[in-house]
Amino acid sequence: MKKLEIFWNIIHYFDYRFELKVQTLLRGGSTYSKPTSNPEVQKQRDLEKELFEKVFKNPRYGFSSMMAGNFIFGLAAIIGCGIYIILIGISNYYQIVLNEIIILIVCILPFAAFTYYYIFHKDKYLTYFKEFDNKPKDWKEKWKWISLLTIVAIILFLVLSFMFMDYLSNINH
Q: What's the pLDDT at 137?
């Protein structure tokens, strides 16, 4: 279970870093570093940079951290929804009557609970963020790609679960 916790935190970490890059790109992060001879303009740039650091880059309360947290919960929900869709397809194939709302809750709730416990309970992600920040560049490069492929695989799982449900509904008994 510890390996799953580390793996899920790695995905969260790299999504957080992606969110930071997107926000920096959208805000024009390079303009903060260009010095100017006009003291008023420089003062304004310094103030904007300070606000950007507080609002977006703070891993505990920042906007990028909130977006990454929403994304990791979204991935958990996608996994649960994929399982739900497969179960609904199987129940329809075998003509079993199920309460779909209860099945949906049973499928999604465990993944959301595990995500909360593995990442957000007692702010575990902050400890992992500090640990991952100190990792070597080759480790970061490797796990960035693994995280991206995992995200793509989870989305592909959802798409394939719809295809499986459709396949089961078109089979003649």
A: 96
Give 130's contacts (C-beta < 8 A, 6+ positions apart). none
Task: Report mean pLDDT in 10-residue bins for the chain, 173 residues.
Answer: 95 95 77 70 81 81 91 96 93 88 91 95 95 97 97 97 91 69
**How many Cβ atoms are within 10 Å of 164's Cβ, its own excluded?**
15
pLDDT at 51: 81
For residues 12 and 69, the answer to whether their CB atoms sit within 8 Å is: yes
- C-alpha 93, offset from chain centre: 33
Domain that holds residue 9: 2-170
Sequence-distant (6+) residues with CB within 8 A of 171 are 93
Reported pTM = 0.86
- In degrees, rounded to 5, the angle at the alpha carbon of residue 11 between the alpha carbons of residues 9 and 12 is 60
- The total domain count for the chain is 1
> SS3 sequence, 64-111?
HHHHHHHHHHHHHHHHHHHHHHHHHHHHHHCCCCCCHHHHHHHHHHHH
Question: For 121, which DSSP code?
Answer: G
Structure tokens at 166: 């459709």
